[in-house]
Amino acid sequence: MDGILIIHKQSGMTSHDVVQAVRRILKEKRIGHTGTLDPMATGVLVLCVGKATRIAQYLEAGEKEYQAVMRLGQTTDTLDAEGRVLETRTYVPPDRAQVLKTLEGFTGAIMQQPPVYSALKVAGVPSYKLARQGKAAPLKPRAVTISSIELQAFEDPLLSLAVRCSKGVYIRTLCADLGEVLQAGAHLTKLVRTRSGRFTLDQAVTLDHLAELAAAGALDQVLVSMDDALADFPSVTVTELEAGRIQHGNSVSWQGEPQIAASLLRIHDPSGRLLALGRPFQGDIRPELVFS
Protein backbone atom coordinates (compact mmCIF):
# COMPACT_ATOMS: atom_id res chain seq x y z
CA MET A 1 0.00 0.00 0.00
CA ASP A 2 1.56 3.26 -1.15
CA GLY A 3 0.12 6.76 -0.87
CA ILE A 4 -0.81 9.68 1.35
CA LEU A 5 -3.36 9.82 4.17
CA ILE A 6 -4.72 13.08 5.58
CA ILE A 7 -5.59 12.45 9.20
CA HIS A 8 -7.67 14.71 11.43
CA LYS A 9 -5.58 14.48 14.60
CA GLN A 10 -7.44 14.75 17.87
CA SER A 11 -6.21 16.57 20.97
CA GLY A 12 -4.24 14.53 23.50
CA MET A 13 -2.32 12.42 20.97
CA THR A 14 1.24 12.96 19.87
CA SER A 15 1.98 12.75 16.15
CA HIS A 16 3.86 9.52 16.89
CA ASP A 17 0.76 8.13 18.62
CA VAL A 18 -1.18 8.74 15.40
CA VAL A 19 1.48 7.02 13.30
CA GLN A 20 1.43 4.00 15.61
CA ALA A 21 -2.37 3.83 15.47
CA VAL A 22 -2.38 3.93 11.67
CA ARG A 23 0.29 1.23 11.53
CA ARG A 24 -2.03 -1.02 13.52
CA ILE A 25 -5.07 -0.16 11.38
CA LEU A 26 -3.32 -0.69 8.05
CA LYS A 27 -0.93 -3.44 9.22
CA GLU A 28 1.81 -1.45 7.51
CA LYS A 29 5.12 -0.55 9.19
CA ARG A 30 6.32 1.99 6.63
CA ILE A 31 4.41 5.08 7.79
CA GLY A 32 5.73 8.53 8.65
CA HIS A 33 4.29 12.00 9.18
CA THR A 34 5.23 15.24 7.45
CA GLY A 35 5.36 17.78 10.25
CA THR A 36 4.70 17.32 13.96
CA LEU A 37 1.58 18.59 15.71
CA ASP A 38 1.78 19.15 19.47
CA PRO A 39 -0.42 16.87 21.62
CA MET A 40 -2.79 19.75 22.42
CA ALA A 41 -3.23 20.67 18.74
CA THR A 42 -5.77 19.20 16.36
CA GLY A 43 -6.22 19.19 12.60
CA VAL A 44 -4.33 18.16 9.49
CA LEU A 45 -1.58 15.58 9.93
CA VAL A 46 -0.26 14.25 6.62
CA LEU A 47 0.98 10.65 6.70
CA CYS A 48 3.08 8.92 4.03
CA VAL A 49 2.41 5.21 3.61
CA GLY A 50 4.68 2.58 2.05
CA LYS A 51 6.86 3.86 -0.78
CA ALA A 52 5.36 7.34 -0.28
CA THR A 53 7.61 7.78 2.77
CA ARG A 54 10.27 8.69 0.20
CA ILE A 55 8.45 11.92 -0.70
CA ALA A 56 7.86 13.10 2.88
CA GLN A 57 10.52 15.84 2.63
CA TYR A 58 8.80 17.40 -0.38
CA LEU A 59 5.37 17.43 1.27
CA GLU A 60 6.70 18.69 4.60
CA ALA A 61 8.09 21.80 2.92
CA GLY A 62 4.61 23.06 2.00
CA GLU A 63 2.96 26.13 3.48
CA LYS A 64 0.80 25.70 6.60
CA GLU A 65 -2.36 27.39 7.89
CA TYR A 66 -3.55 27.49 11.49
CA GLN A 67 -6.44 28.75 13.62
CA ALA A 68 -5.07 29.75 17.02
CA VAL A 69 -6.38 31.21 20.28
CA MET A 70 -4.00 32.91 22.69
CA ARG A 71 -4.56 34.18 26.22
CA LEU A 72 -3.03 37.41 27.46
CA GLY A 73 -1.83 37.85 31.02
CA GLN A 74 -0.19 34.49 31.70
CA THR A 75 3.08 32.87 30.62
CA THR A 76 3.84 29.15 30.85
CA ASP A 77 7.00 27.06 30.57
CA THR A 78 5.74 25.23 27.45
CA LEU A 79 4.23 28.43 25.94
CA ASP A 80 0.82 26.72 25.82
CA ALA A 81 -2.05 25.80 28.17
CA GLU A 82 -0.55 22.42 29.02
CA GLY A 83 2.45 23.95 30.73
CA ARG A 84 3.19 25.21 34.23
CA VAL A 85 2.17 28.82 34.82
CA LEU A 86 5.29 30.92 35.30
CA GLU A 87 3.75 34.34 35.74
CA THR A 88 0.34 35.99 35.97
CA ARG A 89 0.60 39.64 35.00
CA THR A 90 -1.47 42.72 35.56
CA TYR A 91 -1.61 44.60 32.27
CA VAL A 92 -3.46 47.33 30.44
CA PRO A 93 -5.61 45.61 27.78
CA PRO A 94 -4.50 46.71 24.30
CA ASP A 95 -7.00 48.18 21.89
CA ARG A 96 -7.71 46.62 18.49
CA ALA A 97 -5.46 49.06 16.64
CA GLN A 98 -2.54 48.21 18.90
CA VAL A 99 -3.09 44.49 18.36
CA LEU A 100 -3.24 44.90 14.58
CA LYS A 101 -0.03 46.93 14.54
CA THR A 102 1.70 44.27 16.64
CA LEU A 103 0.55 41.48 14.31
CA GLU A 104 1.89 43.43 11.34
CA GLY A 105 5.32 43.48 12.97
CA PHE A 106 5.46 39.69 12.95
CA THR A 107 4.48 39.31 9.30
CA GLY A 108 7.09 38.49 6.68
CA ALA A 109 10.56 36.97 7.06
CA ILE A 110 11.44 36.86 10.76
CA MET A 111 13.81 35.11 13.14
CA GLN A 112 12.03 32.85 15.62
CA GLN A 113 13.45 30.99 18.60
CA PRO A 114 12.00 27.47 18.92
CA PRO A 115 10.60 26.55 22.36
CA VAL A 116 12.76 24.35 24.58
CA TYR A 117 9.75 22.05 24.91
CA SER A 118 10.01 20.88 21.30
CA ALA A 119 11.09 17.77 19.41
CA LEU A 120 14.17 19.49 18.00
CA LYS A 121 17.25 17.51 18.95
CA VAL A 122 20.25 18.75 20.91
CA ALA A 123 23.23 16.42 20.57
CA GLY A 124 20.81 13.71 19.49
CA VAL A 125 18.38 14.19 22.39
CA PRO A 126 14.92 15.82 21.92
CA SER A 127 14.95 19.21 23.59
CA TYR A 128 11.71 18.52 25.49
CA LYS A 129 13.39 15.60 27.30
CA LEU A 130 16.21 17.86 28.41
CA ALA A 131 13.67 20.50 29.49
CA ARG A 132 11.85 17.98 31.67
CA GLN A 133 15.18 17.21 33.35
CA GLY A 134 15.92 20.89 33.86
CA LYS A 135 18.86 20.68 31.44
CA ALA A 136 17.48 22.54 28.44
CA ALA A 137 19.41 25.40 26.88
CA PRO A 138 17.87 28.08 24.64
CA LEU A 139 17.67 26.92 21.03
CA LYS A 140 19.14 28.99 18.22
CA PRO A 141 16.70 31.31 16.40
CA ARG A 142 15.73 30.21 12.89
CA ALA A 143 14.62 32.09 9.81
CA VAL A 144 10.94 31.49 9.06
CA THR A 145 8.25 33.24 7.06
CA ILE A 146 4.80 34.27 8.28
CA SER A 147 2.82 35.19 5.19
CA SER A 148 -0.19 36.57 7.04
CA ILE A 149 -1.76 36.88 10.50
CA GLU A 150 -5.44 37.81 10.64
CA LEU A 151 -7.15 38.92 13.84
CA GLN A 152 -10.43 37.01 13.80
CA ALA A 153 -11.71 37.93 17.25
CA PHE A 154 -10.52 39.87 20.29
CA GLU A 155 -12.25 39.84 23.63
CA ASP A 156 -9.71 40.41 26.36
CA PRO A 157 -7.89 38.29 27.41
CA LEU A 158 -8.44 36.06 24.35
CA LEU A 159 -7.25 36.72 20.79
CA SER A 160 -8.22 34.45 17.90
CA LEU A 161 -5.81 34.39 14.95
CA ALA A 162 -5.59 32.85 11.49
CA VAL A 163 -1.94 32.27 10.54
CA ARG A 164 -0.45 31.32 7.16
CA CYS A 165 3.22 30.46 7.38
CA SER A 166 6.20 28.44 6.22
CA LYS A 167 7.47 25.16 7.54
CA GLY A 168 9.22 25.51 10.91
CA VAL A 169 7.00 28.17 12.51
CA TYR A 170 6.01 27.49 16.13
CA ILE A 171 2.64 29.06 16.81
CA ARG A 172 3.32 28.73 20.56
CA THR A 173 6.37 30.92 20.18
CA LEU A 174 4.49 33.39 18.00
CA CYS A 175 1.81 33.82 20.68
CA ALA A 176 4.36 34.21 23.46
CA ASP A 177 6.31 36.78 21.45
CA LEU A 178 3.13 38.71 20.63
CA GLY A 179 2.29 38.76 24.33
CA GLU A 180 5.66 40.25 25.20
CA VAL A 181 5.32 43.05 22.64
CA LEU A 182 1.83 43.78 24.00
CA GLN A 183 3.43 43.94 27.50
CA ALA A 184 0.98 41.39 28.82
CA GLY A 185 2.60 38.00 28.41
CA ALA A 186 0.62 35.26 26.68
CA HIS A 187 0.32 31.59 25.92
CA LEU A 188 -1.43 29.45 23.33
CA THR A 189 -4.73 27.90 24.44
CA LYS A 190 -6.04 26.28 21.24
CA LEU A 191 -4.52 25.32 17.90
CA VAL A 192 -6.01 23.76 14.76
CA ARG A 193 -3.95 23.13 11.64
CA THR A 194 -6.37 23.71 8.78
CA ARG A 195 -3.96 23.19 5.88
CA SER A 196 -0.61 21.54 5.21
CA GLY A 197 0.61 22.11 1.67
CA ARG A 198 -2.20 21.18 -0.73
CA PHE A 199 -4.11 19.20 1.94
CA THR A 200 -6.96 20.79 3.91
CA LEU A 201 -9.04 19.89 6.92
CA ASP A 202 -12.12 19.01 4.87
CA GLN A 203 -10.08 16.18 3.27
CA ALA A 204 -9.00 14.74 6.62
CA VAL A 205 -10.40 11.58 8.22
CA THR A 206 -10.45 10.59 11.87
CA LEU A 207 -8.73 7.43 13.06
CA ASP A 208 -12.14 5.86 13.76
CA HIS A 209 -13.30 6.54 10.21
CA LEU A 210 -10.02 5.21 8.82
CA ALA A 211 -10.50 1.98 10.78
CA GLU A 212 -14.02 1.62 9.38
CA LEU A 213 -12.78 2.11 5.81
CA ALA A 214 -9.95 -0.39 6.33
CA ALA A 215 -12.40 -2.99 7.64
CA ALA A 216 -14.62 -2.42 4.60
CA GLY A 217 -11.72 -2.63 2.15
CA ALA A 218 -12.43 0.94 1.06
CA LEU A 219 -9.15 2.71 1.77
CA ASP A 220 -8.97 3.82 -1.86
CA GLN A 221 -11.58 6.43 -0.92
CA VAL A 222 -9.04 8.34 1.19
CA LEU A 223 -5.59 7.20 0.00
CA VAL A 224 -4.04 9.88 -2.21
CA SER A 225 -1.58 8.74 -4.87
CA MET A 226 1.98 10.03 -4.82
CA ASP A 227 1.41 11.71 -8.18
CA ASP A 228 -1.66 13.58 -6.92
CA ALA A 229 0.11 14.49 -3.67
CA LEU A 230 2.92 16.10 -5.67
CA ALA A 231 0.60 17.84 -8.14
CA ASP A 232 1.82 21.30 -7.10
CA PHE A 233 5.05 20.52 -8.97
CA PRO A 234 5.00 20.92 -12.79
CA SER A 235 4.81 17.77 -14.90
CA VAL A 236 6.88 16.81 -17.94
CA THR A 237 6.51 13.74 -20.17
CA VAL A 238 9.52 11.96 -21.64
CA THR A 239 9.75 9.44 -24.47
CA GLU A 240 9.96 5.69 -23.89
CA LEU A 241 13.71 5.80 -24.61
CA GLU A 242 14.19 8.69 -22.19
CA ALA A 243 12.04 6.91 -19.60
CA GLY A 244 14.53 4.05 -19.59
CA ARG A 245 17.38 6.46 -18.93
CA ILE A 246 15.46 8.18 -16.13
CA GLN A 247 14.69 4.83 -14.47
CA HIS A 248 18.42 4.14 -14.30
CA GLY A 249 19.12 7.53 -12.75
CA ASN A 250 20.50 9.16 -15.88
CA SER A 251 19.81 12.68 -17.15
CA VAL A 252 17.90 13.40 -20.35
CA SER A 253 17.97 16.44 -22.58
CA TRP A 254 15.20 18.97 -21.94
CA GLN A 255 14.43 22.49 -23.11
CA GLY A 256 11.52 23.52 -20.93
CA GLU A 257 9.43 26.58 -20.37
CA PRO A 258 11.32 29.38 -18.59
CA GLN A 259 8.71 29.70 -15.84
CA ILE A 260 9.27 26.12 -14.66
CA ALA A 261 12.97 25.85 -15.44
CA ALA A 262 13.88 26.31 -11.77
CA SER A 263 11.20 23.98 -10.43
CA LEU A 264 11.21 20.48 -9.09
CA LEU A 265 9.52 18.46 -11.84
CA ARG A 266 7.36 15.35 -11.90
CA ILE A 267 8.62 13.13 -14.72
CA HIS A 268 6.09 10.87 -16.47
CA ASP A 269 6.42 8.27 -19.19
CA PRO A 270 4.14 8.40 -22.28
CA SER A 271 1.47 6.33 -20.49
CA GLY A 272 1.28 8.90 -17.67
CA ARG A 273 3.10 6.81 -15.06
CA LEU A 274 5.13 8.79 -12.52
CA LEU A 275 8.77 7.82 -12.96
CA ALA A 276 10.73 10.26 -10.86
CA LEU A 277 11.21 13.73 -9.47
CA GLY A 278 13.94 15.73 -11.15
CA ARG A 279 15.45 19.17 -11.57
CA PRO A 280 16.46 21.07 -14.71
CA PHE A 281 20.21 21.62 -15.06
CA GLN A 282 22.00 23.15 -18.06
CA GLY A 283 19.58 21.86 -20.68
CA ASP A 284 18.98 18.48 -19.00
CA ILE A 285 16.65 17.02 -16.41
CA ARG A 286 18.51 15.30 -13.62
CA PRO A 287 16.45 12.71 -11.70
CA GLU A 288 16.54 13.40 -7.97
CA LEU A 289 14.25 10.62 -6.78
CA VAL A 290 13.37 7.62 -8.97
CA PHE A 291 10.25 5.63 -8.12
CA SER A 292 10.48 2.55 -10.31
Your description of this structure?
The protein has eight helices and 18 strands. With 292 residues, the chain is of the alpha+beta class. It is globular, with a radius of gyration of 22 Å. The strands form four sheets. Strands 1, 2, 3, 4, 7, 10, 11, 12 and 13 form a nine-stranded mixed β-sheet that branches. Strands 14-16-17-18-15 form a five-stranded mixed β-sheet. The protein has a two-stranded antiparallel sheet with strand order 5-6. The chain has three domains: 3-62 and 198-228, 2-Layer Sandwich (Pseudouridine synthase); 64-196, Pseudouridine synthase (2-Layer Sandwich), CATH 3.30.2350; 233-290, Archaeosine Trna-guanine Transglycosylase, Chain: A, domain 4. The protein has helices spanning 15-26, 56-60, 96-105, 127-132, 171-181, 207-215, 226-229, 240-247; strands at residues 3-9, 31-33, 42-49, 64-72, 74-76, 85-88, 108-112, 121-122, 125-126, 142-155, 158-165, 186-196, 199-200, 235-237, 252-253, 265-268, 274-281, 284-290.
In short:
By secondary structure, this protein is α+β, with helices and mostly antiparallel strands.
Task: Give the topology.
Layout (H helix, E strand, L loop, with lengths): L2 E7 L5 H12 L4 E3 L8 E8 L6 H5 L3 E9 L1 E3 L8 E4 L7 H10 L2 E5 L8 E2 L2 E2 H6 L9 E14 L2 E8 L5 H11 L4 E11 L2 E2 L6 H9 L10 H4 L5 E3 L2 H8 L4 E2 L11 E4 L5 E8 L2 E7 L2
Parallel strand pairs: 3-12, 14-16
Antiparallel strand pairs: 1-3, 2-3, 4-11, 4-12, 5-6, 7-10, 8-9, 10-11, 12-13, 15-18, 16-17, 17-18
Helix pairs in contact: 1-6
Descriptive key words:
Archaeosine Trna-guanine Transglycosylase, Chain: A, domain 4, Pseudouridine synthase, 18 strands, 292 residues, five-stranded mixed sheet
